[in-house]
Write a structure and sequence with these properties.
This is Flagellar hook-associated protein FlgL. It is found in: Bacterial flagellum; Secreted. Keywords: Bacterial flagellum, Cell projection, Cilium, Flagellum. The protein is α+β, with helices and mostly antiparallel strands. The chain is built from 9 helices and 12 strands. The protein folds into 2 domains: 41-189 and 301-378, f41 fragment of flagellin, N-terminal domain (Up-down Bundle); 195-299, no CATH class. The chain has helices spanning 10-37, 48-102, 109-130, 183-187, 219-222, 303-316, 320-377, 381-406, 410-415; strands at residues 146-152, 162-165, 197-202, 210-211, 215-216, 227-237, 240-249, 252-253, 259-264, 269-275, 278-286, 294-299. Strand 10 and strand 11 (278-286) form a beta hairpin. 52% of the residues lie in helices and 17% in strands.
Length: 416
Amino acid sequence: MSSSFFRVSTANMYDSSVRNLSTRQKTLVDLQENLTSGKRVVRPSDDPVAAAQAERALTRISRIQTEQRALEVQRNAITQAETTLGDAIGLVQEMRQLMVGAGGGALKNEDRKTYANQIQSLQEQLRDVINRKDTNGIPLLGALGSALQPFTGPLTGSPDYQFIGQPGQASSDSTSIATTVDGHAALMFDPVRDGIYGASVTQAPGSSLVTSAVTTSNRDVLAGAGYELQIGGVTTSGGNTQVQYSLTKNGVAVPGGPFTASAVTGQPIPITITDGGVSVMNFSLQGTPVVGDKVGLQPSPSLMSSIDSAIKGITNATSSTQAAQTVSQALAHMDAGIERLSNIRGYAGELLNRADRITGDQESRSIQLEADRSRAEDLDMLKGISDFQNANVGLEAALKSYAQVQRLSLFNYVNG
């Protein structure tokens, strides 16, 4: 049996104790820093992977905040656009009511002019409304881009109102919506898309001819062509009235004429215009037609031009028959215009709903990213407090043991 003896020097014991004390103090300081900051990862060197995850989450949260600020600007612009369209609809409806009154058969010419002046005043207000801008000076109904005043006219050399810009609707994506709506689609009539036609009557002496509103079909075939109907004969027999008429299309005679149409005397006479064997336009002749009456059929380019025509027709009408013709056409056009405005207003409302959905999605993403960041760098406070208390107890034990080691010097016994 052998025994081995190892001598441990006092200096080595001191060094070991000091190292242990330093290590425990460093651990205690780190735990205290974690507790005061509330973070498990205070600096990237603590956990490089967790620090990278937390930084990535913070970057994405910052991007969401930026996108939300931009979305709020877009939401405010579309809110103003939706309000603008609502104001425009209200003005058009007021004008429509006045036009109904202007078509009354018992009115004098002066009364009709009074109605026309009121309608013109509302039209001037409508012109200001449709050119309204947002807080940044951008037209709310500017479509894909327009002049600062998108709706102008009638211009010199141009008989109608124009949209000075690029028609169309800007697209939205998963984090943003458009900042303007398509004013061209709201206020301008397209011959193929809308097919809004007006009928103007040139009465021959002794005539009381008026027409109904014009309806169109197969608009791609019609393609915005202008027609003129001229009555060449009217016969009444057996309780029926028959009219004979010729047609021109864009100034060129339509082959196959003259054409005929008939109805029970006193009833509207239906007229159907065909092109290439398909029906493109329908309306009816009302009142008492005579030879020489002419009916012009032209597409209406815009709501504003239809209002202009109505104002001129009501002002210049010399009889209730002429006023009734003007009013009947204007009412049909204004109904179509209100429908266009309502459609675009509904689209603006959907954009606002989309903005709400985007905001909800972004909030969900922010919550998820904040949870990812918290898992990566935040401290579990209960565990942190427990670790701090354990480290504190360990440091106290190390200090006591160090104090005992300090007394283990041989000189203490020799001197003692």
